[in-house]
Recover the amino acids of this structure.
């Protein structure tokens, strides 16, 4: 749609108002006299009384023509102003009133005046932004409500176990050392489940609010190899309790990225912990860290039952319950992989899950590698498997 500036519109309006009366005057004069001459060649003394009487009606038509032209010009300018200036402004005023009461379904009129069109387009962009923000906020609120309700439900199991066994200890039901030790062990296990659930809930909520509000994560220079090794060392005891062989293949050298060390460690812990919980007794888990052009690649593979075909598209959804072995029956809240995915994506990477051809699950994620851009003297080289 062709547009003009408001000053150009006003100039054309003034030009129309000033010229249209004279145009109508000339047209009426031409119709009455059949000529364009406005002066008479006769001397003033020769004008008779009947000539003056004959010219009087003509003078009235001239005045009428000027008034008609002026009125027509004002009418045309008024119609144009109403269509291209007043109506769009009225539409924006009504839209602002609708937005004030929460109604974002607004319709704005188009204008050929450039300044009004720009304001209208900006208003439309604002409305679209508000609609997207409202939809995103609605989805986030539904997700948060669902997460809180689901985790609150999951918290009841260890809480009931704690209360029951503590009541048993208090009432003396566990009267032998062996039974007391068993009661204490169950209480410790339930307390560990509570700690795991609360930590997952806190981290998930923190990441959700960070994404919604646009807050930046704490960024520093991180050697992802150190993060991997610390996570493996921290979970090695848990793996040993299940007689799981935890093997690590980390190339020598440094794999530097920009990111939040604490969050990256949380993501790595979640992935390895998920593998340990779903790996059977005397199984094995392999963690590999390698480089490809521009990326650091970390692979966590276990010897468990793997993911079902139906579960693979949903394994990173919060609180997703699989139908087979990899579900929350192992004590998790269903937030570990979702948290890991959010943390990794916030660092500019991504994560994927699949099954190995020989059995077991594989979770692979990558992060942007900045090692080549640093003045390092030690370059990565292939290392050996560490048990």
């Amino acid at each position: 749609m062709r547009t003009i500036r408001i000053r150009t519109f006003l100039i054309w309006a003034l030009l129309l108002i000033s010229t249209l009366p004279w145009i109508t005057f000339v047209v009426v004069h031409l119709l009455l006299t059949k000529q364009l001459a406005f002066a008479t060649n006769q001397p003033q003394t020769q004008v008779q009384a009947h000539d003056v009487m004959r010219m009087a009606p003509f003078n009235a038509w001239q005045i009428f023509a000027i008034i008609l032209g002026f009125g027509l010009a004002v009418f045309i300018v008024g119609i144009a102003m109403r269509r291209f200036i007043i109506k769009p402004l009225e539409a924006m005023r009504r839209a602002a009133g609708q937005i004030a009461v929460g109604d974002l379904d607004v319709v704005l009129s188009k204008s050929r005046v450039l300044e009004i069109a720009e304001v209208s387009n900006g208003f439309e962009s604002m409305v679209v932004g508000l609609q997207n923000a409202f939809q995103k906020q609605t989805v986030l609120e539904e997700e948060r409500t669902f997460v809180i309700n689901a985790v609150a439900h999951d918290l009841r199991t260890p809480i009931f176990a704690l209360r029951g066994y503590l009541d048993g200890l208090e009432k003396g039901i566990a009267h032998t050392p062996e039974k007391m030790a068993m009661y204490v062990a169950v209480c410790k296990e339930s307390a560990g489940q509570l700690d795991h659930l609360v930590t997952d809930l806190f981290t998930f909520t923190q990441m959700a609010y960070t994404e919604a509000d646009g807050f930046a994560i704490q960024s520093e220079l991180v050697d992802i190899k150190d993060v991997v090794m610390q996570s493996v060392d921290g979970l090695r005891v848990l793996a040993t309790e299940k007689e799981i062989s935890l093997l690590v293949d980390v190339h020598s050298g440094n794999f530097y990225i920009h990111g939040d060390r604490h969050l990256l460690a949380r993501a790595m812990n979640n992935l390895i912990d998920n593998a340990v919980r779903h790996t059977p007794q005397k199984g094995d888990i392999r963690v590999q860290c390698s480089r490809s052009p521009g990326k650091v690649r970390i692979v966590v593979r276990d010897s468990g039952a793997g993911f079902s075909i139906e579960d693979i598209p949903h394994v990173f959804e919060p609180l997703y319950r699989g139908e087979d072995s990899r579900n929350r029956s192992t004590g998790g809240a269903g937030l570990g992989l979702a948290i890991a995915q959010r943390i990794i994506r916030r660092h500019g990477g991504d994560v994927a899950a699949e099954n190995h051809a020989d059995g077991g699950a594989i979770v692979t994620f990558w992060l942007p590698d900045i090692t080549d851009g640093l003045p390092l003297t030690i370059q990565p080289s292939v290392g050996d498997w560490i048990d």
